[in-house]
Write a sequence for this structure.
């Protein structure tokens, strides 16, 4: 749900940044050290209004949410890693400005056009037209046409929508399904396969996402989420269901210095580079166990 803020002449415009993403970045192991997360995204083309000032100031949003995965060492097998799905709530600094783009006046259009038009038109037109037309038309047409036609008519596939789901989710927990920008407010149906399990009819939120709950008795392994609307399949995405195991809590408490039960939160200092600039982000992580 990240956006770029454009400000000029006392007016502001928020432009979504589709698919703003960051590569895997190591977490600092020193308390208080900033966590710098480089991120990149492409902002669609924007038409410059006629009433802008001499420059347009680019700014990061005051807050937004990152859909992240935290990788931690598996204490039973150091060669492996465990993945923790996380929602990182990011808050920008007091100064949200990232930079500015100068506005250049549009080139002046020519004010003088041609003043003279041709005054003489052709006075002679062709007076002779062909007087002979073909008198013989082809009399032979193909008499043999294919007599066998396909018995199955290909039907076009449904219009697809690209969705994003986590690589894995624990049985009995919820997972977030992200839609492209512009889907907010629409109702969709979610079904988990291979054995069909109806996950309910959902309304896409203003952040262009829905949340579905995986049944607690779901079989561990690979599954497919089917999203449809009014009986028409829109999208399909694969994910893995992991068995619920409360004994796995201890490694998160030791590795991430969490205290208490299965639910925990950590606060870290972060920074995010958007487009051509970078801003310091203070964020805290909310995760589900």
């Amino acid at each position: 749900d990240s956006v770029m803020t454009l400000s000029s002449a006392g007016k502001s415009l928020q432009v979504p940044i589709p698919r703003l993403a960051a590569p895997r970045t190591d977490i600092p192991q020193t308390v208080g050290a900033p966590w710098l997360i480089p991120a990149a995204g492409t902002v669609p083309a924007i038409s410059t209004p006629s009433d802008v000032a001499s420059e347009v100031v680019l700014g990061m949003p005051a807050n937004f949410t990152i859909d992240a995965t935290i990788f931690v060492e598996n204490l039973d097998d150091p060669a492996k890693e465990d993945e923790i799905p996380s929602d990182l709530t990011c808050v920008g600094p007091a100064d949200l400005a990232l930079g500015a783009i100068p506005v250049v006046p549009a080139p002046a259009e020519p004010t003088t056009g041609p003043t003279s038009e041709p005054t003489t038109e052709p006075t002679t037109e062709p007076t002779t037209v062909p007087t002979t037309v073909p008198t013989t038309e082809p009399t032979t047409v193909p008499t043999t046409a294919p007599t066998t036609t396909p018995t199955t008519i290909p039907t076009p596939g449904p219009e697809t929508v690209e969705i994003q789901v986590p690589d894995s989710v624990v049985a009995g927990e919820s997972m977030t399904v992200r839609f492209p920008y512009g889907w907010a407010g629409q109702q969709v149906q979610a079904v988990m396969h291979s054995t069909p399990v109806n996950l309910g009819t959902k309304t896409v939120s203003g952040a262009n996402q829905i949340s579905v709950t995986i049944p607690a008795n779901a079989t561990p392994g690979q599954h497919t989420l089917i999203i449809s609307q009014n009986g028409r399949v829109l999208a399909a995405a694969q994910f893995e269901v992991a068995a619920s195991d409360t004994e796995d809590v201890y490694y998160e408490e030791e590795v991430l210095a969490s205290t208490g039960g299965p639910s925990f939160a950590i606060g870290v200092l972060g920074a995010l580079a958007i487009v051509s600039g970078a801003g310091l982000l203070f964020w805290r992580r909310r995760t589900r166990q």
